[in-house]
Amino acid sequence: MAGPAPGRRLRLRPLAALALLLALAPGLPAARAGQAPRPAERGPPVRLFTEEELARYGGEEEDQPIYMAVKGVVFDVTSGKEFYGRGAPYNALTGKDSTRGVAKMSLDPADLTHDTVSQTGLTAEELQSLDDVFTTVYKAKYPIVGYTARRILNEDGSPNLDFKPEDQPHFDIKDEF
Q: Fewer Cβ neighbours under 10 Å: the N or C end of the chain?
Protein backbone atom coordinates (compact mmCIF):
# COMPACT_ATOMS: atom_id res chain seq x y z
CA MET A 1 0.00 0.00 0.00
CA ALA A 2 1.42 3.36 -0.97
CA GLY A 3 1.73 6.26 1.51
CA PRO A 4 0.19 9.72 1.03
CA ALA A 5 1.30 11.70 -1.95
CA PRO A 6 4.33 13.91 -1.24
CA GLY A 7 2.39 17.13 -1.95
CA ARG A 8 -0.34 16.17 0.52
CA ARG A 9 2.18 15.55 3.30
CA LEU A 10 3.52 19.09 2.94
CA ARG A 11 0.05 20.60 3.38
CA LEU A 12 -0.61 18.68 6.59
CA ARG A 13 2.60 19.70 8.30
CA PRO A 14 1.84 23.45 8.40
CA LEU A 15 -1.65 22.70 9.70
CA ALA A 16 -0.29 20.35 12.34
CA ALA A 17 2.30 22.94 13.33
CA LEU A 18 -0.40 25.61 13.62
CA ALA A 19 -2.56 23.31 15.77
CA LEU A 20 0.41 22.56 18.01
CA LEU A 21 1.29 26.25 18.26
CA LEU A 22 -2.29 27.17 19.22
CA ALA A 23 -2.46 24.38 21.78
CA LEU A 24 0.80 25.37 23.45
CA ALA A 25 0.71 29.16 23.12
CA PRO A 26 0.38 30.83 26.53
CA GLY A 27 -2.58 33.13 26.97
CA LEU A 28 -4.63 31.60 24.19
CA PRO A 29 -7.69 29.60 25.23
CA ALA A 30 -7.35 25.90 24.55
CA ALA A 31 -10.32 24.47 22.71
CA ARG A 32 -10.90 20.77 23.20
CA ALA A 33 -13.57 18.68 21.59
CA GLY A 34 -16.57 18.18 23.83
CA GLN A 35 -15.59 20.92 26.31
CA ALA A 36 -17.34 24.21 26.75
CA PRO A 37 -15.09 27.27 26.65
CA ARG A 38 -13.98 28.47 30.05
CA PRO A 39 -15.73 31.60 31.32
CA ALA A 40 -13.67 34.77 31.49
CA GLU A 41 -11.76 35.14 34.72
CA ARG A 42 -13.31 37.56 37.19
CA GLY A 43 -11.58 39.87 39.60
CA PRO A 44 -12.07 39.71 43.33
CA PRO A 45 -15.60 40.18 44.59
CA VAL A 46 -16.81 43.71 45.28
CA ARG A 47 -16.53 44.71 48.92
CA LEU A 48 -19.57 46.29 50.50
CA PHE A 49 -19.00 48.91 53.21
CA THR A 50 -21.56 49.90 55.81
CA GLU A 51 -21.30 53.42 57.23
CA GLU A 52 -19.89 51.98 60.46
CA GLU A 53 -17.23 49.95 58.67
CA LEU A 54 -16.17 52.82 56.43
CA ALA A 55 -15.83 55.03 59.52
CA ARG A 56 -13.01 52.74 60.76
CA TYR A 57 -10.85 53.91 57.84
CA GLY A 58 -10.85 57.63 58.58
CA GLY A 59 -7.08 58.00 58.95
CA GLU A 60 -7.01 57.95 62.74
CA GLU A 61 -5.07 54.68 63.03
CA GLU A 62 -1.50 54.82 61.75
CA ASP A 63 -1.50 51.17 60.58
CA GLN A 64 -4.89 51.31 58.80
CA PRO A 65 -5.52 52.34 55.19
CA ILE A 66 -7.44 55.58 54.61
CA TYR A 67 -10.71 55.24 52.71
CA MET A 68 -13.31 57.70 51.52
CA ALA A 69 -16.34 57.36 49.30
CA VAL A 70 -17.59 59.57 46.50
CA LYS A 71 -20.83 58.68 44.71
CA GLY A 72 -20.92 55.45 46.71
CA VAL A 73 -17.53 54.30 45.41
CA VAL A 74 -14.94 53.63 48.12
CA PHE A 75 -11.40 54.71 47.27
CA ASP A 76 -8.15 53.92 49.07
CA VAL A 77 -6.61 57.39 49.44
CA THR A 78 -3.73 56.20 51.65
CA SER A 79 -1.18 57.24 49.02
CA GLY A 80 -2.42 60.81 49.55
CA LYS A 81 -1.83 60.63 53.30
CA GLU A 82 -0.47 64.19 53.32
CA PHE A 83 -3.93 65.34 52.18
CA TYR A 84 -6.21 62.78 53.86
CA GLY A 85 -4.33 61.53 56.94
CA ARG A 86 -4.88 62.57 60.55
CA GLY A 87 -4.59 66.36 60.84
CA ALA A 88 -4.32 66.81 57.06
CA PRO A 89 -6.43 69.39 55.20
CA TYR A 90 -8.95 66.92 53.72
CA ASN A 91 -9.12 64.42 56.57
CA ALA A 92 -12.73 65.47 57.22
CA LEU A 93 -13.70 63.75 53.93
CA THR A 94 -12.39 60.34 54.99
CA GLY A 95 -14.19 57.45 56.63
CA LYS A 96 -17.51 58.36 55.02
CA ASP A 97 -19.27 59.05 51.75
CA SER A 98 -18.50 62.73 51.22
CA THR A 99 -20.19 63.14 47.83
CA ARG A 100 -21.95 66.40 48.70
CA GLY A 101 -18.78 67.94 50.16
CA VAL A 102 -16.78 67.03 47.05
CA ALA A 103 -19.48 68.49 44.79
CA LYS A 104 -19.66 71.74 46.75
CA MET A 105 -15.90 71.85 47.46
CA SER A 106 -16.91 72.11 51.10
CA LEU A 107 -15.55 70.77 54.37
CA ASP A 108 -18.60 71.98 56.31
CA PRO A 109 -19.73 69.00 58.45
CA ALA A 110 -23.29 69.45 57.13
CA ASP A 111 -21.99 68.81 53.59
CA LEU A 112 -19.99 65.69 54.44
CA THR A 113 -22.70 63.28 53.37
CA HIS A 114 -23.76 61.07 50.49
CA ASP A 115 -26.97 63.08 50.16
CA THR A 116 -27.03 65.26 47.07
CA VAL A 117 -30.78 65.87 46.97
CA SER A 118 -32.66 66.39 50.24
CA GLN A 119 -30.99 69.48 51.72
CA THR A 120 -31.03 72.09 48.98
CA GLY A 121 -29.97 69.93 46.09
CA LEU A 122 -26.93 70.73 44.01
CA THR A 123 -26.61 73.22 41.20
CA ALA A 124 -25.79 72.11 37.67
CA GLU A 125 -22.27 73.49 38.16
CA GLU A 126 -21.80 71.50 41.40
CA LEU A 127 -23.03 68.30 39.72
CA GLN A 128 -20.61 68.88 36.84
CA SER A 129 -17.80 69.56 39.30
CA LEU A 130 -18.66 66.34 41.14
CA ASP A 131 -18.46 64.31 37.94
CA ASP A 132 -15.19 65.97 36.91
CA VAL A 133 -13.48 65.48 40.28
CA PHE A 134 -14.82 61.91 40.56
CA THR A 135 -13.29 61.00 37.20
CA THR A 136 -10.12 63.09 37.01
CA VAL A 137 -9.07 62.92 40.66
CA TYR A 138 -10.48 59.92 42.46
CA LYS A 139 -10.85 57.34 39.69
CA ALA A 140 -7.59 58.48 38.09
CA LYS A 141 -5.43 58.51 41.23
CA TYR A 142 -6.86 56.13 43.82
CA PRO A 143 -7.80 52.45 43.60
CA ILE A 144 -11.40 51.42 44.14
CA VAL A 145 -11.69 49.07 47.11
CA GLY A 146 -15.46 48.69 47.23
CA TYR A 147 -18.83 50.36 47.35
CA THR A 148 -21.11 51.71 50.04
CA ALA A 149 -24.16 49.71 50.99
CA ARG A 150 -26.31 52.54 49.60
CA ARG A 151 -24.75 52.06 46.16
CA ILE A 152 -25.21 48.27 46.05
CA LEU A 153 -28.42 47.76 48.05
CA ASN A 154 -31.90 49.25 47.92
CA GLU A 155 -33.38 50.83 51.06
CA ASP A 156 -35.14 47.55 51.93
CA GLY A 157 -31.80 45.68 51.82
CA SER A 158 -32.50 43.91 48.52
CA PRO A 159 -29.81 44.01 45.84
CA ASN A 160 -29.84 46.99 43.51
CA LEU A 161 -30.25 45.29 40.14
CA ASP A 162 -29.03 48.44 38.38
CA PHE A 163 -25.65 48.35 40.18
CA LYS A 164 -22.65 48.31 37.86
CA PRO A 165 -19.08 48.44 39.16
CA GLU A 166 -17.04 51.44 38.07
CA ASP A 167 -14.53 50.86 35.31
CA GLN A 168 -10.97 51.48 36.44
CA PRO A 169 -8.80 49.50 34.03
CA HIS A 170 -5.43 50.79 35.25
CA PHE A 171 -6.10 49.56 38.80
CA ASP A 172 -6.85 46.16 40.26
CA ILE A 173 -9.61 46.20 42.85
CA LYS A 174 -7.95 45.40 46.16
CA ASP A 175 -8.93 42.08 47.69
CA GLU A 176 -9.33 42.68 51.40
CA PHE A 177 -11.78 39.93 52.30
A: N
